[in-house]
Amino acid sequence: MDLSYTDEEKAFRDEVRGFLAEKLPKEISDKIRAGRNIGKDGYEWWHATLNARGWLNFNWPKEFGGAEWNAIQRHIFEEECAAAYAPRIVPFGLSMLGPVLQKFGSKAQQDYFLPRILNGEHWWCQGYSEPGAGSDLASLKTRAVRDGDHYVVNGQKTWTTLAQYANWIFCLVRTDPEAKAQEGISFLLIDMNTPGIEVRPIVLLDGTPEVNEVFFDDVRVPVENLVGEENKGWTYAKYLLTHERTNIAGVGFSQAGLDMVKRIARIETANGRPLIENPHFAARLARVEIDLMAMATTNMRIISKAAAGQAPGVESSMLKVKGTIIRQEINDLARRAVGPYAMPFASEAVAGDNDPIGPDYAAPVAAQYFNNRKLSIFGGSNEIQRGIIAKVKMGG
Ligand SMILES: Cc1cc2nc3c(=O)[nH]c(=O)nc-3n(C[C@H](O)[C@H](O)[C@H](O)COP(=O)(O)OP(=O)(O)OC[C@H]3O[C@@H](n4cnc5c(N)ncnc54)[C@H](O)[C@@H]3O)c2cc1C
């Protein structure tokens, strides 16, 4: 196994750096660095910028016009974007639905939906979770009943990220209530402008309405919006989840966060000395840095295996657990480093352009700390991941 970069990969890194230096304005990267919201327009602008370069669909196969980067190229790109404080790519259309349509969608669905994911005409959200169906997703109850050439959908989804921006939602719905849990589920594509859909915001701990409840009341969906076969949706849902868990380790985000904590700890003081010299703080910082270095190496090992054609298995669960623990620890260190400036937390300082209270670096610290509690819950909670690891590694 070779963990060093080839000349070609180094040249690719330079190309990404050059692109970011040219195309990412300081005004946007400053907002990301300060943890401020760039809003729908900001995400759409970034998608369009990447699309113009042919880099938005980097994980799509060439037959669908994608760049088809290998695992190492994707890793380099994600690392450089995090280091440059580029906006994140909203994954729902590109990394989740796109691959499902490419594998299981009809030709008509591929021809209609894939280009609209890329050109930004469609903003997708993910309608999987329901009240009572999260970790135990197969117990979902949202019902779709066939009525002529339509399905009639009734029920509720929850925790739907950025549904307030979306005009389409991909949903898991129950089409056969008599079948065994996993067998009566179908995968439907639903236009959010159809009568009977209501989106209600859920305000998170950081004060932002990042997630929503979505209600369906006799929503009529054309049968041609069924992906694959009726009652086979679980197969497609699971395939999608393997794509949801890409870049799960978040090494680039952690590295950028750690650099920020060090910057803060060099400026803030404890007992008249820079905080970074405080033995307790320095020890915690060192511990998380060592953990991050170890995880980055593990990540490279797994990427190197993937580049050699071996699909990651239980390793992605290990990266999810470790990666989220590290990011949450970094958020906690930042919160401690800014001390009382983390207290006057005002979501307006993050969502709007208001001046923060205290130094500029203090503004997002509390919001990020609170917001990133989500990391150990979504994409399969850490407890569920530990269960998977135990089962595979210990045969539990
Ligand atoms: C910020 C955020 C954004 C999200 N975005 C979306 C989205 O866009 N679309 C979408 O469909 N969903 C989304 N989700 C939902 C997410 O997938 C679920 O929250 C997650 O699967 C956990 O389900 P739950 O919240 O129902 O908790 P539950 O499944 O009820 O779990 C509650 C607790 O019990 C633990 N637990 C449950 N079962 C077990 C077990 N077998 N062994 C050990 N411990 C267990 C869990 O780890 C957790 O700590 C989002 C969630 C969050 C927080």
From TrEMBL:
GO terms for MF: flavin adenine dinucleotide binding; oxidoreductase activity, acting on the CH-CH group of donors
Keyword Lipoprotein: no
Family membership noted in the UniProt record: Belongs to the acyl-CoA dehydrogenase family.
Domain Acyl-CoA dehydrogenase/oxidase N-terminal: 6-121
The organism's taxonomic lineage, starting at the top: Bacteria, Pseudomonadati, Pseudomonadota, Alphaproteobacteria, Rhodobacterales
Pfam families, alphabetized: Acyl-CoA_dh_1 (PF00441), Acyl-CoA_dh_M (PF02770), Acyl-CoA_dh_N (PF02771)
SUPFAM superfamilies for this protein: Acyl-CoA dehydrogenase C-terminal domain-like (SSF47203), Acyl-CoA dehydrogenase NM domain-like (SSF56645)
Cellular component GO terms, alphabetical: plasma membrane
Domain Acyl-CoA oxidase/dehydrogenase middle per the UniProt entry, residue ranges: 125-219
Name of protein: Acyl-CoA dehydrogenase
Required cofactor names: FAD
Keywords assigned: FAD, Flavoprotein, Oxidoreductase
Organism of this sequence: Ruegeria intermedia
